[in-house]
Amino acid sequence: SSEIAHSATGIDIHPGAQIGPSFFIDHGTGVVIGETAIIGERVRIYQAVTLGAKRFPADEDGQLQKGHPRHPIVENDVVIYAGATILGRITIGQGSTIGGNVWLTRSVPAGCNLTQANLLQQDDCSKK
């Protein structure tokens, strides 16, 4: 079960997450992958990466509604470096690189190289 895997590895992958072939986690401690995350082929992530929800939708009575798409879509051939936090139903485009400790709540296009410096300069991303 996912609880046994988490206690043995420090990695928390919800059983509902969809993960493509050749997915690789390097130094996995602290990795969290949410229920509705979709991860493409040949994706690599490093320690302390979160693919999480930005919020839970609620019904008219304020009850949280699970099962709605609320976690990121990571397309093929993406690399996400240590400590990155990616929240919400956003898309990380094919072949992109997300740098260490980046906090991201918006989609990025294919081939993007997003770093803290890009974010501080309010640059969308630099192409590889």
Essential attributes:
single chain, 128 residues, six-stranded mixed sheet, 2 helices, 15 strands, 10% helix, 26% strand
Question: If you had to describe this structure to a student in words, what would you say it looks like?
Answer:
Helices cover 10% and strands 26% of the residues. It starts with a helix and ends with a strand. It is built from 2 helices and 15 strands. It has helices at residues 2-9, 116-120; strands at residues 12-13, 18-19, 24-25, 32-33, 38-39, 44-45, 50-52, 73-74, 79-80, 85-87, 91-92, 97-98, 103-104, 112-114, 126-127. The mean pLDDT is 90. The protein has a single domain (2-127), classed as 3 Solenoid (UDP N-Acetylglucosamine Acyltransferase, domain 1). A 6-stranded mixed beta sheet has the order 3-6-9-12-14-15. The protein is mainly beta and 128 residues long.
SSE inventory with pairings:
Layout: H1 2-9, E1 12-13, E2 18-19, E3 24-25, E4 32-33, E5 38-39, E6 44-45, E7 50-52, E8 73-74, E9 79-80, E10 85-87, E11 91-92, E12 97-98, E13 103-104, E14 112-114, H2 116-120, E15 126-127
InterPro entries: Hexapep, LbH_SAT, Ser_O-AcTrfase, Trimer_LpxA-like_sf
Protein name: Serine O-acetyltransferase
GO cellular component, one term: cytoplasm
